[in-house]
Write a structure and sequence with these properties.
The chain has 143 residues and is an alpha/beta fold. The protein contains five helices and five strands. Helix 1 links the parallel strand 1 (3-7) and strand 2 (29-33).
């Protein structure tokens, strides 16, 4: 069981999330730092509309049983990685517990080995991109 540090600054969220999910399922611990500066590709109106729809989902019988999407960047990223794990099974729950996501770069993680995930640079993508911070700000996140 190894520990990996993933710096999300300027990296595409979906590409990083799939690699991180694979590492978690192999039994490794993964720390994602700079979650607020990760990128989502696509038109900004489409991205915001998609997540606004998710926030509006409510169970009519009991609204407390509705799915929860946080507006905080670190929890938002963690939830997206969770979607790539079989989190209802024991293997997926254990993997999800080994994931830690941070806003910024904490001092205690300086000693952890960095895991470089190759993704396209934002200039190479034909779509427009938004940072996670921009997405959650449009969804109502206030620092």
């Amino acid at each position: 069981m190894a520990e990996y540090l993933v710096d999300g600054k300027g990296k595409i969220l979906g590409r990083v999330s799939s690699s991180v999910a694979k590492r978690l399922l192999e039994g490794d611990s993964v720390y994602i730092v700079n979650a607020e500066s990760m990128l989502m590709s696509g038109h900004s109106k489409d991205i915001v509309a998609k997540y606004k729809r998710l926030y509006e989902l409510k169970d009519k019988a009991n609204p407390e049983h509705s799915p929860y999407w946080s507006r905080r960047p670190d929890i938002f990223v963690k939830r997206i990685v969770r979607g790539m794990l079989p989190y209802k099974k024991a293997k997926g729950k254990d993997a999800y517990k080994r994931l830690k996501v941070y806003i910024g770069f904490p001092e205690e993680l300086k000693k952890v080995k960095e895991y470089d995930i190759r993704t396209k640079h934002s200039d190479e993508i034909y779509e427009s991109v938004m940072t996670i911070e921009q997405v959650v700000t449009k969804l109502g996140y206030v620092k």
